[in-house]
Amino acid sequence: MQRREITERKKLEMQMEDYFASADRIRKMECGGITEINGSQNCPTIDGLARFAVDQNNKKVVPKKEFVKVVSAKQKLVAGMLYYITLEAKVGEKVNVYEAQIWDRPWLDLKELTEFKRVDDDPSTDSFDRSYQIGDQFF
């Protein structure tokens, strides 16, 4: 009988730990905190958002980029969800790392690329490959 009580107690303790860990994640999201998306490298949703970011960027700038893979992703609850995705994309044969911000509002069926920049961006790089934010003009 005592062994069963210990097992039940451990089970309850584990459930409480899970509950409080989940509550902490929810609290961070409710307060606008940025949370890491575990397993983002293998998540079809994040992969689709990363490809969307590269496609949208390709409409604005040259040279064109080819999506390679997701490196990592974070999210922030806003009026919708703001995704911060680090990804790899090729320009020719060279693979570069980029950071993209995508604002997703599914109830409006609306996704917007709000920022796209090369991680190692510096003033000496090709001007067409520098970061931009929505509203910038390209000719």
Automatic annotation (TrEMBL):
InterPro entries: Cystatin, Cystatin_dom, Cystatin_sf. It comes from the Eukaryota. Keywords: Protease inhibitor, Thiol protease inhibitor. GO terms for molecular function: cysteine-type endopeptidase inhibitor activity. Belongs to the cystatin family. Phytocystatin subfamily. It comes from Medicago truncatula (Barrel medic). Signal peptide: none annotated. Residues 29-119 form the Cystatin domain. This is Cysteine proteinase inhibitor. The keyword Protein biosynthesis does not apply. Gene3D superfamilies: 3.10.450.10. Pfam families: SQAPI. SUPFAM superfamilies: Cystatin/monellin (SSF54403).
